Amino acid sequence: MKRARTVADTRARWLRANQTDAERALWKCLRELKTVGFHFRRQAPIGPYIADFASHAARLIIEVDGGQHGLEDGVIADTRRTVWLEGQGYRVLRFWNSDVLGNMDGVMRVVRETLGLQA
């Protein structure tokens, strides 16, 4: 039986087709973790939110944030979102676009350490 597509599914599909440069670069690196047993989904609907990247098995969400997330409204919304996601058993890592684009080795070191892998 085919599941009906929700608004979140439609939005997630649009976001996957319109990734930022930072999301595209991180996705390339996260896909390589499949070889060591970690599968990530991009723009994954979870409850009322769409996570940039999620490994359901590892209960890890990775968010890549642009400048709007540093504004007061963004900080408040991100805090609410993180609290909800952590309440569902996920750990949430957040990286700035500039960190992903300028320090991918450092970003992936944090991700690998969080997954219990050697950096």
TrEMBL record:
Entry coiled-coil feature ranges: none
Keyword Nucleotide-binding on entry: no
Gene Ontology molecular functions: endonuclease activity
Superkingdom field: Bacteria
SUPFAM superfamilies: Restriction endonuclease-like
InterPro entries: DUF559, Endonuclease_DUF559_bact, Restrct_endonuc-II-like
Domain DUF559 positions: 10-113
Keyword hit for Hydrolase: yes
Keyword list, A-Z: Endonuclease, Hydrolase, Nuclease
Protein name: Endonuclease domain-containing protein
Species of the source: Paramagnetospirillum kuznetsovii
